[in-house]
Every structure is written in structure tokens, then in C-alpha cells.
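Troubleshooting log. The previous run stalled partway through. Resubmitting the same two chains, unchanged.
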Amino acid sequence: MENVTTPRRRRSLWSRLSWLHSWKISTGLGIVGFFVLMAIFGPLIARYNPSATGNAMIVAPSGAHWLGTTQSGQDVFAQLVIGSRPTLIVAFVSATVATIVSVAVGLAGGYLGGVSDELLSVLSNIFLVIPALPLVIVLAGYLPNKGDISVMLVIALTGWAWGARVIRAQTLSIRRRDFIEAARAVGESTPRILFWEILPNETAIVTASFLFTVIFAVLTAAGLAFLGLANVSEWSWGTMLYWAQNDSALQSGAWWWFVPPGLCIALLGTGLSMMNFGFDEIMNPRLRSTGRPKTKRKGRSPVVLAELTRANASDGTEFTTVRTATSELDGS
Amino acid sequence: MRYLARRIGFYMLTAWAAITLNFLIPRFMPGNPVELLISHFKGRMSPAAVKSLGALFGISHQGMLSQYASYWSNLFHGNLGISFTYFPSSVTSIVLAALPWTLVLVGVATIISFVLGTVAGVVVGARRGSWLDITLPISTFFSAIPYFWFALVILYFLAVVVNWFPLSGGYGAVDVIGWNWPFLLSAAYHSVLPAITIIVTSIAGWLLGMRNMMVVTLDEDYIILAEAKGLSKARINFLYAARNAILPSLASFALSLGFVVSGAILVEIVFSYPGIGYVLFAAVNNDDYPLMQGVFLIITLAVLLANIVADVFYVLLDPRTRQGA
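Second attempt completed without errors. Output:
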């Protein structure tokens, strides 16, 4: 909304990336980017082989071992850095699969309506209400091999419902807009309307549901690994916690062993949620914490403002319409 | 009332789906590990027990439909099979013994966390833009913490470093389970750390949700009218805004409760708390499929029941649901 006065043609790259102006999005992006870099360049900075045992057992953090060592003398820092890659891969891949399912179910249900919509929304509501972790545990318990791929599939299977519900609601509201009616009148095919007309208008909400699902996937994968239901011979933040618990890190007072992986999970989750809140505020400007609405009211008649607010309230996600509405106002 | 009837209908449908899922999982997953286990225990199990396990896990040679029918009849007789871990106890008896621990722990912790988080959300939402907004990044961080990791950390600092709380278990070794004071006090004492873990890690979700709804509600015209009438801030915030803002929070109770229960399972494992999560852990470690599935079923049904309770409250609070829309 800040850039509405600048004519469109002269907008710099910085103003075109206006969503980066939100400190929440940029901070969140920074945190997530940090961990992505760690996952890519992990082997270069690990300094030790994470599985190599040594004579220095349960050593507190020092110059030689930045985050100390484990029961069998393995370097915790190396495990943390090497373990970031499988953690992120499992999280992002399962969230991607889950989001594809959510988009398919949400778009189909919201656009087609009728019986298929009823069935699809009952299905996603059922998956929402059934507690995910016990289901994941039962499914993973039956898997003959507990590799990354099966863990990802199980997480995707249980994590799509929330996104599907949100996307369906959004599709329902877009379906009745004039430009969709126009597209239908012109005779565009249903897939084209779905993917070229509706989906681009849902980018923000799909992103939000993706980020939310990544958090869910990180936490669920860590929980599964902690229970020993993942491949525990591979290093990830979850399996680090599994080994820490199994080798009684707690009783030997080795806080440096179990604190870092959980802290990294929490930080990654914080980064993802901050991005999510940032997008949320773009979609629904009334959530912004800075500036109470009273001070914003300067210069605009209350009636116009109420109209604007109502436009937001009825559909917070359609921020582009609101933006053009404001720019017209400012121009007059 | 039609609203409530519809919701209960939905929960019945969900219960049916969960039970059917439970029926299908062992039949469609590759291999049948239960068959292997039964042959392990051959000779030690009564033929009747083998037969009921066969009905529950699909090791009979009947068609799918008659398997499904005998599965349901087993369920209605409260028969969830026999646990391999605690052989020869039945799954039902083990789950029923563990259930009260989890119900009390998760129930009390969830209510405390919901009340505290919602009140804090009202306060933070009412003062949007003030220094109180610092709670937003902090609670974001707390909502992203893995439950079991926070359990490990709090256990380390409050039970290992300073010896304030017991390391594990649900009651003292000398206590006799029952309605006697020493046992109840000891159980309460043992549940402090698990409860704190659940409260701390789940409170942020209630706070953030309530805060966002407050911010939206405080922009409504009737709030401006209330301000114009000169009503006190506290009255506006709690009696005008919060009463409406709490509805979505309550409506999303279903979704959140699933998360809390999932987290509580892992918390119980860390604390070796004798609840249903710990039973699930034992089942997983011993490939005890009947127990695993029994626990899944009971947890799901408990969550559904809790949701019905939440929906009844919703109907009491929201007059629109009572008008039979």
C-alpha cells in the first residue's frame, strides 16, 4: 500500500519487491535462508565426520568441539550441520507434496461445488480432526523400511487437509467474481480457468499454507525420528534427539547435546511462521501491529474508510483490489 | 440445535472413518507383521484370542466384507485384541488403565493454557502497537518448539540440575494407586513438569489466534459506538470485543486439540508418564500392532468427544447457532 502513489512504470526493483519491506518477511526469510545455506554447505563447515567416534566423550563445548561431544565422542556441531540437510529435505519435499494435494482438492472442491465439494470437504475435515501424530505413528509402524521416502509420504498424507480447507474457501469466493464469469462466458476450458485464472489469485494463500505445512512436517519428522520411527542411522535433528535420549544425555548433564537440535528446529519454525505472519498482514492489512487505525484515518472520510475496511473484511486475501482502490483515492 | 446435530453427525462420520481406517491400515500396508507375531506366540494364546486377532488384523481367509463385519462386532464387545508387549493382557484393559492419566494431564493443561492464552490475547490485541507486541515474536518462537524437546530441556534444568521435581513417572514408588492423599499429592507433584511443558508450548497458539481476532473485532463499528458512549476500556475489551473474538478460537479448538494431543504423547514419553502416549511408545518399540492401533483408536475417539464438548460450549456462546440457520 505504501507504493501506490508512484506510477507503475517507474517502480524500482526494491519497490516491486514490496513484500520484502515487511520486517517479518525479511527476518523470516533470513532465518530460513541461513538454514538452507547450512544444508547446502554443511559438509564444508562440519570439520568432523559426524559418525566418527573419539576418545573425548561427553566433553563440554570447547575450541576443538564447538558444541561438545556425545557419549561416544562424536562431534555435536558436525551432527547438527550435516543433519540440517535431511531435516530440510524431508520437510520441504513432504510439504510440497502435501501442498499439491491441498491445491488439487481445494481447487476442485471450491470450483466444482455440489456433491464432489461436499465429499472433499468432509474428507479434509475428517483428516483435520483426527490427531495427526498417532496416525503417523501407526502408519510408520507398519512400514517395512523406515527410509526418508516413506516418512515423507506419511507426513504428506496427514498434512494436506488444512491447506485444502483454506484454498477451498478462497476458491469459493473467487469463483463468483466477474472475471471468472467472463472467462466462462468466453468458453475457456475448466482446467484453464482453474490454473490460469483462479490459481494465480491464490498465490499468497498457497504460500501461507505451504509454510504452515513445512512447520508441521519439521515437527512431525522430528517426533517420528525421536520415537525411532525414522532411519536413525542417518543424521538429522530428530535422530540427534533420539540418540541423545537413548544414550541418556540428560542424566550425564550433556545439555550441549540435546539443546542445539531442538533450538534449530524452533528457530527454523520461527522463521517460517514470521514469513507467514508477514504474508498474513499483506493479505489482511488490519492485522498490522504498527499504527492504530485511528491515526491512519487522517485525511480520509470515515465513510470511504469504512467502505475500504469492509472490502478487506469481506475478503482479506484480495489485496490487489484494495490496493487499486486506495491508489484511486489518493489520486483524487 | 440443528447446528449441534450437524456437528455431532460429522463427528460420528469421523469416528466411522477413523475406525475404518484402523481396519484398512493393516490390510493394505505391505506385509502383515501381525501374522508373524501370532506365529511367535503360538501355543501360548487361546484359539479364541487368535481368532479375534485374525478378525482385527485381517489374517482370516474370509472376504473383506465379512472381515469388516466381524471387526465391528469385536469393537462393540470392547475387544481390541491382545497386547504382545503386556502379554496376555488385553489391549482394552491396558488402554483403559492408561487413559485417566492422559485425560487429567492433557485436560487440565489444555484448559489452563486456553484460559491464560485467550486472556493474554485479549490484552495484547487491545494494545496493538504498544510494547506488548514484543510477545508476538516470542510466542511465535514458542509455538515452533517441538513439545518433546521443551520437555527434555525443562526436565534437565528443573529435575537434573536443581532437584526440584522427579525425573520420571507418574507417582512415587511407595504410593498405592487409589483415592488416598499421599497418592494424589504425589501424582499432582509428578504431573507439574509435564503440565508446564504442555501449557508453555501450546499457549502461544491460543494467544496469537485470539490477538488477531481481537485486532479485527476492535475495528468494528459497534466498538467505535461503545467508545463514543464513553464506556470504560476494560468493559469494551472484555464484554464487547472479546466475547465476539473468542468464537473463532473456540471453533478452531478441534484443530488445535489434535496438535496438543499429538504433542502430549511425546511429552509423556520424555517423562515416562504412565499415560496413553507412553503405552504407544512401548507398543512402537515392541512392534505391538494391536496395542498401537488400539491406542490410535482411543485417542481419536477421545479427541472427537472433546470436540463435541467444545461445540456444546460454542452453541451456548453463539446465539446464531441456536436460531436454526
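Takeaways: Chain A touches chain B through 59 residues (CB under 8 Å). Residues 300-330 of chain A form one domain.
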